[in-house]
Amino acid sequence: MQQRYFGNTGLKVSVLGFGAGHVGAESLSEDQAGTLLNRAVDRGVTLVDTARGYGLSEERIGRHLSYRRHDFILSSKGGYGAEGADDWTPPAIRRGIEQALTRMRVDWIDIFHLHSCPLETLRRDDLLSALDEARQAGLIRVAAYSGENDALAWAVASGRFGSIETSVNLADQHSAHSVLPRARERGLGVIAKRPIANAVWQFEERPAGQYAETYWERLHQLDLNGVREQAGLDWAEFALRFTAYQPNVHSAIVGTANIANLERNVRIIQEGPLRLDVLTQIEAAWERTGKTWPGEV
Ligand SMILES: NC(=O)c1ccc[n+]([C@@H]2O[C@H](COP(=O)([O-])OP(=O)(O)OC[C@H]3O[C@@H](n4cnc5c(N)ncnc54)[C@H](OP(=O)(O)O)[C@@H]3O)[C@@H](O)[C@H]2O)c1
């Protein structure tokens, strides 16, 4: 598994990361969660991304993965949900980080994101200072922002963050076009979330009211099926190779609760970037149809 320098942070991350959102689901047994987390790291998928809001995810990382802390890079998110603190206050940051360390049974978090807060919250100096203090105290290594659009652009320009996490996939290219070139110039690490567009191709019908609905609509409008068939790839491979080999992305954190899909993604990533003629056709479809679409949180 290729490991890449994560901007100027001094960290290295695997090109395929592990989105540990699904690992937080109660429908998954402890055994299944532990097997998934460890299989990922065994395969060199060494960036593990979680958040306060992902159900049992953080505590399962503590239970099943923390014993091998030096084998992986840990990314989490917060700003909310800290016991004894109001959301989006300095204590919510500081105590939230301390509580996450306890839940995950680790001494430090490598990358800690303010999780999808709007621009007016993101700009608050008291919150940014709380993040700086956590970094100076060694509780986190990199202060980061996870989000989209204006807030993401501000985070990159502000100089207050070492890395960002944002949606990058076939159906969501706003950040890739408008923000990531600047992030690279400034030496920020970049994590691509929702990298295979929530695998929306699996839905025959529009998934009304579900998280993936916007991507389902967009993928239909982009009409990339012919390009994909011509490339001779199934959807998972077409989507993952597109995102993981974007010039300004360091790691694509695919979410899965399925060990076979994890193994498949490890194999797909070895195939490298899509062919240039395929990328050119995807680019043309985006220019024709998608270029005004905003990033989706
Ligand atoms: N910061 C934020 O606000 C934010 C928001 C969204 C996501 N994220 C992060 O990004 C991670 C990934 O995002 P995501 O899970 O929403 O979207 P995603 O990775 O684009 O798609 C996940 C979906 O793809 C399926 N899948 C995975 N590998 C597959 C394969 N080889 N073939 C077919 N289907 C496959 C999974 O189902 P199976 O379980 O069946 O494999 C799951 O339904 C999350 O876990 C989280 O860490 C962050």
Automatic annotation (TrEMBL):
Protein name: Aldo/keto reductase
InterPro entries according to UniProt: AKR2_Oxidoreductase (IPR053135), NAD(P)_OxRdtase_dom_sf (IPR036812), NADP_OxRdtase_dom (IPR023210)
CDD domains from the UniProt entry: AKR_PA4992-like
Top-rank taxon: Bacteria
Domain NADP-dependent oxidoreductase positions: 16-286
Pfam families on file: Aldo_ket_red (PF00248)
Species whose genome carries this gene: Deinococcus antarcticus
